[in-house]
Design goal:
The structure is a homodimer. In chain A, about 30% of the residues lie in helices and about 15% in strands. Chain A has about 325 residues and is of the alpha/beta class. The first copy, chain A, folds into two domains: about 110 residues, Rossmann fold; about 180 residues, 3-Layer(aba) Sandwich (Rossmann fold), CATH 3.40.50.720. In chain A, α1 packs parallel to α9. At the A-B interface, α3, α4 and α5 of A face α3, α4 and α5 of B.
Chain lengths: ~325, ~325
């Protein structure tokens, strides 16, 4: 069983953990820093853990592609797999902690005008206090209550918000941090009382432009938006307008319709918009990488035993 | 009983609340936006709620000065009061929520390199991911476990740190968010395992330069420091050096030995130093102002009844 691992951030401890697991299941291993490093004799591998999209397109022998990302939208187009039966797993569950910290950080930065303080301070200017808002007594709406939404809600709870409402397809989530859970179909009636709207949705046909111009207009004046899911979920033009005309308090986007964000995008110059370059869930955080590797190793055992894989993607649904 | 209120941020609801309380105790009220607005006939008032330091110097009739700040160091010099028996109360307890949010915000900004992302983004540049640190599994040391330290610890707990250790004079704090409580005398042995050092101390002879050059050197490599108490607590020169030579991961200072920070201060150009202009506890946050006014009104009842005042300052100790 040929297994190729593609990840330049892995430490020796991670490699050792993967080696031990591979030995347990009789797999042979090749570690690559990028896809270009895969030698000819490994091009027909059975398993790839990493971003092996180039190999997947041509390798008819590939039976399982385990990607270290949570989103898998980039694998859902036709022609992505030479072997149409190839299993795909994502690493949903590894990013909750780091992305939840990002959401709290950018929410507070916006509410406390720390972006303003910071840009003044790097000019060497002692600025005056700006009007601040708070997570205390805030009405928080979380669109998408998977691992990320739950990890965020658990942290947000400690800030004593007025309410945390979760929204999901099923309207169900077992995490007690949500004061109430609602179905996506009720979204229009929930937006008017959302002081902070947190979006952590995958890219699927149902989530595309879910925050439309009409829905943006339903948010109360001064509301804040944080998007850490996929950029496709927001009508970016309408968002720009609602920020520039001052109706919204601010927005923090880590994801965009086009990434990297083109240098001529109007988003760069939009008022009260905090732009981060898709870093909320990057793998530089040790905890994230540890969990990611753990998940792959557990799944490798499942694979070898012929048991169902965790985080298996339904390629028809796209998640 | 003449009562002067000095606070330009008060809303009508706050004024109404103060009016009702004053009526209850037979007090007469004057609302001023600043000390300069106090007319001659109110200069001999019995009570001031606000920054009435100018009046306190000359008004022999002043019996109680209620300041809206938590720190009172500026009132401890000789000559501050024409009436040496004048009672002083602070508003400790009103700032925990807002300052705790500030501490979480700047800690995450530093750990997640959001200062870097932000300064790149305002230049219109999509930067690459930076190595991130996390509050998850972080060893947090909180120097000063009053209202601010406790409010911070309660929020920090939700981020699943490895440990939160509190340090106070007594070594005692009833808040269960601290995994352990230690005495200030043990500080030297605690610093080597502090990944994040949070300082919320008043300015007193004991706290001046408590984070000396020697103690800074005890912190582990890559440690972060947040100071929201008083600038006098840190040897600023030694801090600059530890940041510029890369030994420390970063520092976020909201308070300084001299405020506003002089334009020629070397702190402005120190590496990995986040400067905010003493805004962590400003009164623009509605919640802070509400609690502040509540506290004064309760104390006004106590005063009228001849009962002990809450938050009474021992002017010998300075807190």
């Amino acid at each position: 069983m040929k297994i190729v691992i593609i990840n330049k951030l892995l430490k020796d401890t991670h490699k050792e953990q993967i080696r031990k697991t591979a030995a347990l299941v009789g797999g042979s291993l090749f570690f690559a820093e990028s896809e270009n490093d895969i030698p000819q004799e490994w091009a027909d591998c059975e398993i790839i853990y990493g971003f092996g999209m180039g190999n997947a397109k041509v390798n008819k022998n590939l039976k399982w592609l385990a990607v270290p990302s949570a989103g898998v939208d980039y694998l859902m187009k036709p022609g992505c797999f030479a072997n149409e039966e190839c299993l795909v797993t994502n690493s949903s569950g590894a990013y909750g902690v780091t992305i939840a910290e990002h959401i709290i950080a950018v929410s507070l930065m916006m509410m406390r005008k720390l972006d303003y303080s910071y840009s003044e301070s790097i000019k060497g200017s002692w600025s005056s206090p700006q009007p601040q808002k708070s997570l205390k007594d805030c009405r928080i709406l979380v669109l998408g209550t998977g691992d990320i939404g739950c990890c965020f809600a658990r942290r947000a709870k400690a800030f004593e918000p007025e309410s945390i409402t979760g929204v999901s397809r099923s309207g169900y989530c077992s995490d007690p941090s949500f004061d109430s859970m609602k179905k996506v179909s009720e979204l229009d009636s929930l937006l008017p009382s959302a002081d902070l709207l947190v979006m952590s949705l995958p890219d699927t046909p149902e989530t595309r432009d879910i925050l439309s111009r009409e829905r943006l207009a339903l948010l109360p004046e001064g509301a804040y938006i944080v998007n850490v899911g996929r950029g496709s979920a927001i009508d970016e033009d309408a968002l720009c307008e609602s920020l520039n005309n001052g109706r919204l308090g601010g927005a923090a986007l880590d994801v965009f319709k086009t990434e990297p964000l083109p240098s001529d995008s109007r988003l760069w110059n939009t008022k009260n918009l905090l732009i981060t370059p898709h870093v909320a869930g990057n793998l530089t955080l040790e905890h994230t990488l540890n969990v990611n590797v753990d998940m792959f190793c557990k799944n490798l055992i499942n694979y070898a035993k012929g048991m169902p894989l965790n985080n298996l993607i339904d390629r028809n649904k796209g998640y």
